[in-house]
Each structure stands twice: as C-alpha cells, then as structure tokens.
Design goal:
The protein has helices spanning about 30-35, 45-50, 55-60, 70-85, 90-95, 125-140, and strands at about 20, 25-30. It is mainly alpha-helical.
Length: about 140
C-alpha cells in the first residue's frame, strides 16, 4: 500500500509538476491548477487560477471564487480528466504503472476526508481515481 503521495511517490500528488494541455488547448502546470480552474464561472477567474505561480495558490484561488453551478456533480469527472491528461505523459505513465497493484491512498494531515484519508478516515476518491487510471492504462497497452 502507498499511503502518502510524497518522496518517491510525490508524482502521485496533484501538486507535482506535470505540464499538460487539455482538449481545448489550455496548458496547466499541475492537476491542481486544472482542477481548480474548472470551478470558474468566468474567464478572468479561470485564467488567474490556470496561471497561478504555485499549485497552492491555485487551490487558494479556487476556494475564493463563485463555483460553477454544477460543480458538485462534475468534480469527480473533472479530477478524472485531469489525471488522464497527467498520466498520458509517458514518464509519469511508467511511474504509475510501476506502482503495480498497490492500493493508493492519499493520506494527509490537513483533514481532507473526501479526496484522501486523514487519521484513518476518508473516502480516498483521489487514490481510487488514480487506481482507475492505472487500470485504464494497463487495458490500453
């Protein structure tokens, strides 16, 4: 089991560098930038988040804007799309595949029990989506 996305498994984190371009031609330095930008209801907020200097700043900005009205119903698909873009990068794809069949858990200390697990509690949606992407890659190879 991989229970933290840090050190040798830091590449699994949404904060890790993973420059990619989406189907609209917009580029993002991390999945965090992509995910937070998709919350935006206007181009100003979208671009400010997309171009934020750090993933932490992108996250902060994403928490301060008006959310797209359907956000709660689409956020998991948005995350899945971001992960698919990231792990289409051959080097990152190889690293994800190298995790084998290990269970991936986004263990954290900041209290995220939706995307991760904190103090043994959480849905671990990020870890589960990463394992889904890993399986999709296997099936397509």
């Amino acid at each position: 089991m991989i229970d933290r996305f840090e050190r040798e498994y830091g590449f699994l984190s949404n904060f890790s560098p993973s420059s990619f371009t989406d189907e609209c031609g917009d580029s993002y330095p991390t999945v965090e930038h992509y995910f937070q930008a998709q919350k935006a209801t206007n181009m100003f907020d979208f671009e400010e988040i997309r171009m934020a200097k750090t993933p932490g700043l992108a996250k902060k900005l994403g928490r301060q804007i008006e959310l797209a009205p359907d956000w709660e119903s689409v956020k998991e698909q948005v995350m899945l799309d971001g992960l698919r873009y990231k792990f289409a990068i051959p080097e990152l794809q190889d690293k994800l595949l190298a995790t084998g069949d290990q269970y991936l858990e986004e263990g954290n200390y900041w209290g995220d029990t939706y995307w991760g697990v904190c103090n043994g509690v959480g849905k671990n949606r990020l870890g589960k989506l990463l394992m889904q992407v890993r399986e999709e890659i296997r099936e397509s190879n």
